[in-house]
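Hey all, sorry for the wall of text incoming. These are the two entities for the joint prediction.
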Amino acid sequence: MRLLSRGSPFGVAALVAGLAGLAPFAARAQDAAVDDSGFSVRFESGDADRLKLLGHAECLGGVLTEQVKLAVEVTRPENTSGDYRAVLLVKPDDGAGCEAADAQLCADEERTDDPDRCRCVARGAQNDSSFEVSRPFGSLLFGTEWSGDGLSGCSATPSDRTYTFVPAFVPADATKSAQGGPPGDGQAFKQTDAGVEDASTTTPTADVVLGTSTAEVQIDEVAPSAAGAVFVESGDRALVVSVADDDVPAGHNIYACARAYGADGSAPTLPAPVAGNALFYSTTQGKPEGVEPDDLCARSSTDGATARIEAIRPGASYGVFVFVEDEAGNFGQPASTSRAQSAEYLNFAEYYRTAGGREKGGCQGLPGSSGPMGLVAVGIAAGIWVRRRRGGRS
Amino acid sequence: MSASNRFSRLGALALLCVVMSGAHAQAQGLRGSPRTGLFELRMTPGYVPAIDSTFSPSADCVASRPYQKIFGNDGAPLFQLGTSAHVYRGIGALSLGATVGYFQDTGDMVRTNPCVGDGDVTEEEAQFNEDRSTTDNTSLTLLPLQAQATYRFDLFEDTFPFVPVVRGGLDYFGWWIDDQDGETAYFDAAREQPSSGGTWGYHYTLGVHFLLDYLAEDMATGFDLDAGVNGSYLTVEYTVLKVDDFGDASSLRLGNDGVLNFGLTLEL
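and here's what came out:
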């Protein structure tokens, strides 16, 4: 399962927020030193086109691995006084794992000492209207946040664990629970907690002005279509696996694996399609479900329909199976072919030597010269001679 | 033929020569900027390095011809760009200069059994049999450097547009062999001998240059006035290259016993 950021560029995010009536967010008076009534605070997020949530078998017990850029923009009304700083609060969870999570998000100086709150505070410069932070928010925001009950697309159901959704992200749709429950495909979430505080404040305070983020992410549970026919060609100790270009839409790639035949010549059992076009995830990060440790696998480039599996034993037989992987990292149903073989091929250098050639490479030198420098020296000498000769004439 | 007729014919011929030489002398006068050297572009179609000549010939086993086995007989174009400066002008022109070139031939990688023929297949069948990889290529790239002297007998080019040419010089061919990943391959399994290096040699050339100015004198005059190009020539040359570290049997033989090349030469 993967999370897709929708409208992640700042401008788009702001537009979305504006249309939704979520920003700007009116601030509340909270500190005598700063007359912050009328401050407006707005979040924006960007530069994270793809938010990957890995570990589907744990039912969303995964990690956002890509950095999310969050920006806080503060608009100060006229005729207000006092110095202020923009503040972004991130509240990972309220207990277990807080320190580990903090370590990933916060620099030491930003970490709070509140053992119950486990909070990071990022501050902008004094009286600057905006600032940005860019960090891997992964495990903080989605570390262990979902209940495993009833989630669609999961191949395993955690039964004795209760996951709490991180308050830094809450469902955009208030009617959906932020405490467990199925996320549903396409559900959006929003970042909260930003504000302004007195510039003289040296410790984080909870009663800062809160705003609402325009960051919006979606969970994508749609499996890409399986590849049709699988084509395998033999390379030098490699198998070159390809599928039809039409099977690999823009942004997709293929993940191909080879599984060796048994010592007795028996064909291996390959991953087979399952009913319902379910996703093929694995708890092993980045690999499809059904891939075994001894399988030899390779991924094509993005938009590529060909993957080259290396380290194949020449002459040995392999079964080959292929997954299409979409841009969110979802693996579709496998397609396979029963038997493929590789060979050992020779490049020209190897073949030349096999045929009896004795060249060993390296730059040969003329007596008193070193490789091509001898020729260069000849050229320079000739040039000098020509110039002198012409100079003598003139 | 009467004496009067003979004299009249000789007179007409003499008049024609005077007119022709006068016209070309005029043209020569208009394109009369100083002649200092040559700029040359040459191409040898289907250049095949003589690598296989170091192996014992065997009709039945193409292992004895590794270049032919991998790359076939068609070769690849060799491009060369050169410049030279006149060091003598009198009875013709003697120039000293240098060229740099580029050649790359690419072929399919082949299986380990070199002797696929066993006497039962033709060379063509052996070259392109099922043992060739459909996915993996290998290539040989040459970067020929030459220092050479060129003599062009252009004394009569104003009346006769063909200029005999003789060249000779010292060669250094940089070379490397790439594997299927486009990286430098190795000669040995231990990967201690990268397949790249340089090989010394020499060359000599006979050729003829055709003065294009004869076909378009006005254009040639303008070319000289605008760009200082005294003459433009189409060239055909026959070159013998001996590039094997002066007879070292263990070196790649990158030369060729005789190739025709074509090109364009500008006299500046």
